[in-house]
Protein: carnitine O-palmitoyltransferase
Organism: Sinocyclocheilus grahami
Amino acid sequence: ATGFRNVSFVYSGDLSSFFLWCLFILSLVQNNVITGVYPASPSSWLFVVIAILATMYTRSDPSMGLIAKIQEHLPVSDSLSIQCRTVVSAVLFSTLLWFSLIFTMRLCLKQLLSYHGWMFEQHGKVSNTTKIWAAMVRIFSGRQPLLYSYQGSLPNLPVPTVKDTVKRYLESARPLMSDSEYERMTTLAKEFESSLGNRLQWYLKLKAMWASNYVSDWWEEYVYLRGRGPLMVNSNYYGMDFLYVTPTPIQAARAGNTLHACLLYRRKLNREEIKPSRVPVLNVPLCAAQCERIFNTTRIPGEETDSLIHWQDSEYVAVFHRGRYFRLWLYHAGRMLSPREIEQQIQRIMDDPSPPVPGEAKLAALTAGDRIPWAQARKEFFSSGVNKRSLDCIEKAAFFVALDDDEQGMRGDDPAGNLDRYAKSLLHGKCYDRWFDKSFTVVVYKNGKNGLNAEHSWADAPIMAHVWEYVMTTDSFQLGYTEEGHCKGDVASSLPPPTRLTWDIPAECQERIERSLAVAQALADDVDFHVLPIQEFGKGAIKKCKISPDAFIQIGLQLAYYRNRGTFSLTYEASMTRLFREGRTETVRSCTSESCAFIRALEGGESKEVCRRLFRTAAEKHQHLYKMAMTGGGIDRHLFCLYLVSKYLGEESPFLKEVLSETWNLSTSQTPLQQVELFDFVNHPEYTTCGGGFGPVADDGYGVSYIIIGENMINLHISCKHSCPQTVSTFFHYQFPETTEKGKIETSKLIDKMSLLKLVRI
């Protein structure tokens, strides 16, 4: 199921670990067999064999002579009877027939999943074609799929035509350009389409014929791994704890349950017991390839490009506390440690009085600064001896854990300000207390609040969000705490204490660390962050107007930006392409001519009827673009790949160069709530997840992440930079639709103070 490069194994050496490792390998083999024959099941082979043998005993030949042909060329001993040869030949024929049926079913399912007409139908109006298609998908999908069962049946991402991509690009650029600029860009686009574009397209189609996905490998390498700037703020993102609840104020106990819940998720992941993600309603499967590198994965710095290394398994985590690093084993005598045992081990780390050695406390600043100095320092100071062993321990860990001495959360006399500081802490911390190269870092604060910081290259945010949803709910509702706030369970007396990692960091390396820290600190200090929980309305009120909640928020962001800057901006909204094999993301260009027309009418004092009609048109346009992006009809990944092909061929394209140099001043992304069955917002409204966020993409722009919680809440995470006088995260918030009375959505300077709900209601 893995199929990734640079896969290694971690084996600690004792007998119990050996048996655990053997069981793990056997489980992998079993799952690979089940996944390999899906949508059939291994037991169906026996059914086919029995059916063929039964028909033979009725003196009929279902093979039309093939069994006799196999018998003639069967390389077996003459001592076998004719009847035995016939049975062996029948079994071989049955096996070939079984594989042929599997191949046919998988091919049919792949063709069925290539149909996306269902997505473009009106809500509540399902055509007969879609009904027949849905029935066929259920027939060919098989039963009880494992996590990776659908991988071989997912269609490949199609390559759009150059003509369609150019047309859609010009359409998206029109509201952002003057007449002369648009005319010039149209000329460049037409020249590209009629000349170089067709040649580049031929090479791209050639790649699409043999690659599982013609975008994803290049996207991972050139957008992420070849980036030479800091990962912190620029690439990594964060996820928050519950907004109003902290299950226990004891730091070690919260860490115990959180780490144990992570291990439970990893066990389900290794056994492929996690249900494949699907599009709601019609249960269309999504690609699960990104799940393979959640745990045991590290980004390794290089001078020209970084690399991702994934180990098959790891039995420990690396823990940072007060400038020291520890190895914490999570298994003992072949079993997983209980939450109470992990709490005890965490407490041992916190009670350890030893100080950090010179250079150790701020070592992780190397992962927060520029990549080239880190790659050079790693090669020079961490390629041998004790430093290499300790660095290997961190990089091969299941994940990284940071025990912070700060208290965070929505608390005290300034809950809004503390929530903003909580977000900034998760995003960058002190710039040396997160290992930004690890697939993810679990952060546990002194007051029991927690969160995570995740590296972006190995997967997109919905994958990590799925993990974090499971961890939060398992921690609070499944594992729980005692009345005193400690983890439940017993503690084995024979547990060895966590191991302190040792370092020998020379003065020259310490200087490199300080330089990286200075770069990272300047970047962190420049980040302005604001978290905005909107509790007075949510998707329930919006959907009553028959408007997509995502379109509503996106148009609201456009309106806020226009009031903030007095102009429109090229807007990035991330959309998934996981309907296709190894799909990652595509861009929805949310700023459209339709949304601009609505905002101009709204700000220009047009009548309610005109604004209502324009708003609905803009929302429908946005939803169409989003669906196009999800189904392979986006333009930005296609243009990106055409640009890379031109570079490989040494060709210069003024059109592609200009398109790829455009700045996304407004970068947005929705974090989906995927496992809704885990959250009971009706009976437990206090257990509200706050989602997560990311830093601004442009120095003079905004980064906006949002999550729609239940029916009555939306959380926004808004980031920008202090160094740009035109961007202030809180000012952007004040321009966004605010709330007054329950059921009304009002914005400042809205016509006659009319709520957006009333404005769009028909």
Q: What stands out?
A: Residues 39-144 form one domain. The longest helix spans residues 82-113. The first strand starts at residue 7 and ends at 8.
